Amino acid sequence: MKEDIDVRRIFLLNPDQRLLEEAAHSGVQVRSAQVDAMDESALRIPLAEAAAAGLYVNPARALWTLADPAAVQRLVRDNRLAPCGIEAAPGDPRLTVETLSVHGMHQAVGITARTPYGLLHPAPLTDDAAAEVRAVVTALLDLTGYQYGPAHTSVALTARGPVITGCRAGLGDDPVPELVRAAGGCDLAAGAVAVLAGRLVEPARPHRFAAAVVLEAPWKPGSAEVGGLPGVLHVVAPEPPRPGHVVIEVDSPETAERQVADLRALVLGEDG
C-alpha cells in the first residue's frame, strides 16, 4: 500500500446512503461528488482531484462502462464471456453476484438466487457452477478496469453455462445486503468501505440459508411483532409507497418456498 494513501478516508461517487452511514459508523471520512456517470469527461475531474488528495479511485472509463448497460453487454459479447451464441431464456435460473474489488483484485462475496417467491442466499449451486459464475463475473470486472469498491452483477444460469445480463458499480439493492449478512456471509457495506480505503476483506462463508421477501403494505401485525416471529432475522417495515421486506432463516432450499408462503400468510393474511 502506498504510504501517501489515507486509509481513514474514502472517495464516493454519487454516494449511497448505506455507505455513508457505514463510513460514519466506522470513523472513516468521506469525500464525495455527484456526477453523471454516463459522462466520461465529467467523471475525470472529481476522480483526478480525489486521487491528488490521496484517495483510491477508479478509472473514469471503468465507471462509465459499468453505468452503461449496453457497454457491459458489448464487453460480454466481444470478449466471449458467454457460450458462443447463447442468450438468456426467460426460464433460466437467475442469480445476483456481489463482489468487492481492491487494487484490481475482485472477490465474489455472495451469490444469491432469484426465485418466484423471493431471494435465497446462498444460491444452491454445485461447486463447479459457483466457480464458473465467479470466474465470468471477475473476468468482466477485469475487462472494465474496475479497481475499487462493490459491484452488483446479474447472471442467468443457462444449460451451457452462466450468461451475464447486467453489471453495475455499487451495492445490490435492499434487501440483498441484509440477506447476505443474515445468512452469515459478508457485511457488504462494511466490506465496501474497507476496499474503498484499500484494505483487503477476509472472506466469510454463509453458515445457513436465508430468504428475503418484499411485502407491500398493509401488514396485519406491526413490524415489532413481525420481528418476533419464528425464524425472522431482519425486518424493514413498509413506508408507502415503498414496500417493506423481511429476511428469514430457512431450513433448506427445498423448504424455502413453503416457509416464505407461511410468512406471507402471517404478515399479509394471505392463504398459505
Description:
This is ATP-grasp domain-containing protein. It comes from Streptomyces bungoensis. This protein has 272 residues and is α+β, with helices and mostly antiparallel strands. It has 2 domains: 9-196, D-amino Acid Aminotransferase, Chain A, domain 1; 209-268, Alpha-Beta Plaits (2-Layer Sandwich). It has 9 helices and 10 strands. The chain has an 8-stranded antiparallel beta sheet with strand order 7-6-3-4-5-8-10-9, with helices on both faces. It has a two-stranded parallel ribbon with strand order 1-2. Strand 1, helix 1 (17-26) and strand 2 form a beta-alpha-beta unit. Helix 2 packs across helix 3 (60-67). The chain is globular and about 55 Å long. The model has no long low-confidence stretch (mean pLDDT 94).
CATH superfamily of the largest domain: ATP-grasp fold, B domain
**Taking strands numbered 1, 2, ... along the chain, how are they ordered across the largest sheet?**
7-6-3-4-5-8-10-9
Structural class call reads alpha+beta
What distance lies between the first and last C-alpha atoms, to the nearest angstrom? 55 Å
Low-confidence stretches: none
Tell me the number of structural domains. Answer: 2
Please provide the count of β strands.
10
Relative helix content:
25-40%
